[in-house]
Amino acid sequence: MKALIVDNSGTDPVMKMGEHPTPEHGESELFVKIKATALNRADLMQKAGKYPPPEGESPILGLEMAGTVISAGSKVSKFKKGDRVYGLLGGGGYAEYCVIHEDLAMPIPDNLSFEEAAAIPEVFLTAYQAISWLGELKQNETILIHAGASGVGTAAIQISKKLYNAKIAVTAGSDKKLKLCESLGADLLINYKKSDYSERIKSNFGKNKINLILDFVGAPYWFKNVDVLSTDGCIVYLAMLGGTKIDNMSLVPILRKRITIKGSTLRNRPLEYKIRLVSDFQAHVSKYIGSGDIHPVIHSTYDWHQAEEAHQLMGNNQNAGKIILTGM
Amino acid sequence: MKALIVDNSGTDPVMKMGEHPTPEHGESELFVKIKATALNRADLMQKAGKYPPPEGESPILGLEMAGTVISAGSKVSKFKKGDRVYGLLGGGGYAEYCVIHEDLAMPIPDNLSFEEAAAIPEVFLTAYQAISWLGELKQNETILIHAGASGVGTAAIQISKKLYNAKIAVTAGSDKKLKLCESLGADLLINYKKSDYSERIKSNFGKNKINLILDFVGAPYWFKNVDVLSTDGCIVYLAMLGGTKIDNMSLVPILRKRITIKGSTLRNRPLEYKIRLVSDFQAHVSKYIGSGDIHPVIHSTYDWHQAEEAHQLMGNNQNAGKIILTGM
User: Fold this and answer.
1) Which CATH number applies to B2-120+270-326?
2) What's the rounded mean pLDDT across residues B157-162?
3) Angle, CA A83 vertex, CA A77 and CA A88 arms, to 5°
């Protein structure tokens, strides 16, 4: 089959259209014609050789897809040929075909195109896992979502508002991105280039008022994050794009405020964990996707031959929402 | 009533026998003649002015007691005059009498004296909360308990072994203390003065094998704790006696190993939380106390007129297990 292959022969690694063995489905798996996939930061890292695929996963980039079932394994009971499905992949989305365990696949709601569906799995499951499972957000609590206009950010805003009626503060680097966050339900919009987010939060919400923080920045935000957290507050780290080293770090607030700090990734979790997450997501979030109350946020769609351009857009932080590849 | 009062008139604060207003019970509370109480490190901190009592709590030291019910509020249904009870206090244990919410009081099993019962509430509830609620230890997992011969340590060893059949590594500062830990069920005994605990754990259990760490030391153990933790491992901080500042702290393992860090105290939790904890403790641990399978570890018993001596013993880390005050 055709697939985008990382070429390391030049100074920088680039993707080139090439050939890769077509995967074969196991007895509980679906064989799917991919119609669309979406970019994740992990793709850029994997291309740069910094995020090798977990053992047993496809070396091809791409952590999610939407497509049509071509055939199903002998033990598959939930889907049949022709069904429109979307879901998480351990790898292999930048290709014509993929296989996916039937319990990881979800039926695409009628109101969504393949492109829209492909924008959902990774960021919405990550946001749901971070908010509901790890952060244990409760009704009417207050959440701070950094990078609010990112894929996970836009998903997190909608999930916290719709499922938990949360009070939501977001940070982003442009007023245009903040406008998007506001349209999704964010209450306090903070342009981190123009103001200090901890001061803005304290003056708007009060001291020690944030119950949960979703952070992708890491070390540069440590002290301010801890400062705005409430008693029994929690920080969930999903990335650390701004740095990882903290000097003069104090453990005191962890004890005094009874803080919880959690780091999480989704890709390298065991299959059984992902299946439970997908099942829980379908029980609690999918109805809102089907009704249009929660929707994917798409920044732009590229033909997969232009995947390099799409990667550059993401690398330069120019996107607000997901970048889609299609045309497989 | 008679009570030990902190006297700050000299260079160092000391406790002196004095008079304090006898507390009056509310409608859901018990009025109890205290027969024994036990020391906690928090008492030493409070005496030094570093750990003020939570609002509404007695200013008298003492976070636990065992005694006899003298009278009960009009809404009390679980206890009656003459019952032997023990439980957590927000303060006020170093006195002749106390009041306690009936849902925080537990009946003393027949096999325990007042002195033995007084040794249980604070450390066993703290250990249970840390292991079961915060650390979420699972059957046959591996736990590292620092300060294994401390009050919480001796409780934690027994709870992890009896409830979770855990593989247990402990650290302590003397071979005598380690002997005690072994008798309670510890599998790997590490004298931190003689060897590097992370090396000992890696050579005995393997790399990245500790699912849960109970830590009272803080900053000096940060790097080694993170080093021995497994994927999805957790550190629960109950104190930070060795220091709180970490230089060159890296967030990387938190993300890479999906680590959870939690800080916790028990005293300043809301009443409703403590009631749930006591209720859960009675459902899962009390039967083992009643059967003698889990038992308090008492280092020594002092008449409460000798409380200052008892404090010195604890301040010098000379105790293995609890120090009891009696004779009220």
Assistant:
1) 3.90.180.10
2) 98
3) 80
Residue type, A127: A
Tokens of A203: 């003056």
CATH no. for A2-120+267-326: 3.90.180.10
Q: Which of A138, A127, A214, A218 has the alpha carbon at shortest distance from A169?
A: A214
Q: Which two tokens stand for residue A92?
A: 């292999």
Structure tokens at B140: 């046959």
As a whole number of Å, the CA-based R_g of chain A is: 20
Radius of gyration of chain B (CA): 20
Give CA–CA dist B319/B149, Å, rounded. 8
Residue-level pLDDT at A76: 97
**In this predicted complex, what is the ipTM?**
0.90
**Contacting residues of A for B248, CB less than 8 Å apart:** 245, 247
The first and second tokens of residue A191, run together, are 């342009």
Task: Please give the residue of chain A at the shortest CA–CA distance from B249.
Answer: A246
| Residue ranges covered by each domain of chain B | 2-120+270-326, 124-263
Contacts of A259 in chain B (CB under 8 A): 261-263
* Two tokens, residue B13: 């604060």
Which pLDDT score, from 0 to 100, does residue A263 have? 96
Examine the pLDDT at A141 and tell me if it is beyond 90.
Answer: yes
Residue pointed to by tokens 């249904």: B77
pLDDT at B317: 84
> Judging by beta carbons within 10 Å of its beta carbon (0-12, 13-18, 19+), is residue A273 exposed, middle or buried?
middle
- Read off the pLDDT of each residue in B300-309 and give the average, rounded to a whole number: 97
**How close does chain B come to A240, measured CA to CA in Å?**
8
B65-77 residue pLDDT tens = 999 999 999 999 9
- Per-residue confidence (pLDDT) for residue A32, from 0 to 100: 98
Task: Among B250, B259, B266, pick the best mutation site for testing chain A contact (most A Cβ within 10 A).
Answer: B250
